[in-house]
Amino acid sequence: MNRPVVYQAASICLSYPDDAVLGTAGLVRRALAESAPAAAPSFAPLLDWWAATPAADVQRAYVDVFDLSKRHALYLSYWTDGDTRRRGMVLVDFRQRYRDAGLELDGSGSRELPDHLPLVLEFARHRPEDGAALLQEYRPSLELIRLALAERESPYAGVVAAVCATLPGRSPADRQQAMAMASAGPPTESVGLEPYDPRLLPLSTVGGRA
Predict the structure, then answer these.
(1) Taking the chain, what is the end-to-end CA distance rounded to the nearest angstrom?
(2) What's the gap between Cα 181 and its chain centre?
(3) Integer angstrom CA distances of residue 167 from 137, 157, 160, 175, 196
(4) What is the pLDDT along the chain (210 residues), one digit of tens a residue?
(5) Which of 6, 66, 117, 147 sits at a 20 to 30 Å CA gap from 167?
């Protein structure tokens, strides 16, 4: 599997579907077919839905799934650190990793936090080994997002599943197995955390879209 192609395709597909993003659908489909055919079926439901759905409806659905729902947050460190002070340092670490790789978010026009999954995937596209290591570090977050999207029967679920498939090890079958992947306990400042669920945190606020 050509991981950079999968990461770039997933970065595009998980970004806010403005006209520029939707206009890449054909290119994404062709790139996957040519360079990552094993991943192409995972993207097909989303790309087919884009093709059959008015852009305004696609955009409203994206906001509903990712901006208004606590269960599908694309901010990886939120699932592990919530709105705690520690998360601020984690976000600094994300940004430093990008800088160490020669990538700079400042001035890029992005309004997202550095742990936003499309940005992490863009980093992984440029630095596949470092990016895969970062994604594996936040594997429980990825898997919980994937499972929540699958439970919703969202076409975005396959895109996240394709990213998980680039990483070592088998994906967990359910939320309990996904949470068992986490080695750290819940942050002490989190509120409303279920005692058996050390990684799944309630999302109180979501940042702006790209």
Answers:
(1) 28
(2) 17
(3) 10, 16, 12, 18, 26
(4) 799 999 999 999 999 999 999 999 999 999 999 999 999 999 999 999 999 999 999 999 999 999 887 788 899 988 776 666 677 788 888 888 888 888 876 544 457 889 999 999 999 999 999 999 999 989 888 988 999 899 999 999 999 999 999 988 766 555 665 665 554 433 333 332 233 333 333 222 223 343
(5) 66
